[in-house]
Amino acid sequence: MSTRTGQGDLDGLVAVVTGGASGIGAAVARRLSAAGAFVVALDLEPDAAPSGITGLLCDVCDDSSVRAAIEDVITTYGRIDIVVNNAGIGAQGTVETNDDDEWHRVWDINVVGLVRVTRAALPHLRRSPAAAIVNTCSIAATAGLPQRALYSATKGAVLSLTRAMAADHLGEGIRVNAVNPGTADTPWISRLLESAPDPAAERSALEGRQPHGRLVTADEVAGAVLYLASASSGSTTGTSIAVDGGMQELRLRPQVQAPAAIP
Ligand code: NAD
């Protein structure tokens, strides 16, 4: 059972976070726990869940695994109030690059995985007085990024699903929102950088793409998820919060170098 590290807005509520053993999901699990929720990280690597967070084996690509995990949570805690659909994987390339198998594999995790978890949790969310679903989407859903055709398609679907689900379940008292992170400093990005021919140059290119000049932190994304999961956002549904250092909305003037002094 999770040990709560504090009391707060989510006192006594039960949250499940997919992909909660790493990166953004782990930061979300810690934040929700600190706000008073019992948090279960549903992950392929449950033993890697952060200290104080219960990890539970779950493959979001396998409907029976998802249903068993949700039933385990109900057996232990008796309720589910918050679902954070965060598990996801990346893919690189243009529309020519990825074969059909990769399209199906990434789609299965990033989109259908979200559907499986939500579908299994809905009967329990309907009984919650404070039901909220938060989906981890991406800047890739709202801006055209090079070499991310497949990944962007999945995150565009997550954004559309967020709105459709919000409409379907508003009358049942279930709010559905998304967060759109810019490039965030997580193990995923570390792996991506390690595979680049020049990791330092790749890192500085990613940092330079963020208007605020650095990568987003996982905890900054988690702060937005906490807001969307809590009663503080009780009138917010069917929308997304960008946590991207201004990447989506800002159009900054390029820095003009001062001319070198003429000797
Ligand atoms: P990460 O690789 O650090 O963590 C992903 C977690 O998901 C891991 O614990 C992994 O075991 C788990 N997972 C993978 N497949 C799974 C499956 N089939 N079933 C259950 N768990 C599974 O990644 P991250 O950077 O923290 O990304 C988390 C989410 O944030 C993803 O949806 C990603 O698309 C999104 N996102 C990340 C960034 C970024 O720059 N890191 C930016 C925007 C959006």
Summarize this structure briefly.
This protein is of the alpha/beta class and 263 residues long. The chain is built from seven helices and seven strands; from the N terminus they run βαββαβαβαβαααβ. The chain has one domain (14-184, 217-243): Rossmann fold, CATH 3.40.50.720.
Describe this entry's structure for a reader.
The relative contact order is 0.14. Helix content is 40%, strand content 13%. It is globular, with a radius of gyration of 19 Å. The protein has a single domain (14-184, 217-243), classed as NAD(P)-binding Rossmann-like Domain (Rossmann fold), CATH 3.40.50. It is α/β, with parallel strands linked by helices. A seven-stranded parallel β-sheet has the order 3-2-1-4-5-6-7, with helices on both faces. Helix 1 (23-34) crosses helix 7 (218-229) and helix 3 (100-125) runs parallel beside helix 4. It is built from seven helices and seven strands; from the N terminus they run βαββαβαβαβαααβ. It has helices at residues 23-34, 63-77, 100-125, 149-169, 187-194, 199-209, 218-229, and strands at residues 14-18, 38-43, 54-57, 82-85, 132-136, 175-181, 240-243.
Question: What share of residues is helical?
Answer: 25-40%
Using the coordinates above, name the CATH class.
Alpha Beta
**Number of DSSP strand runs:** 7
Q: Can you say what the CATH homologous superfamily is?
A: NAD(P)-binding Rossmann-like Domain
Helix/strand layout:
Blueprint: E1 14-18, H1 23-34, E2 38-43, E3 54-57, H2 63-77, E4 82-85, H3 100-125, E5 132-136, H4 149-169, E6 175-181, H5 187-194, H6 199-209, H7 218-229, E7 240-243
Helix pairs in contact: 1-7, 2-3, 3-4
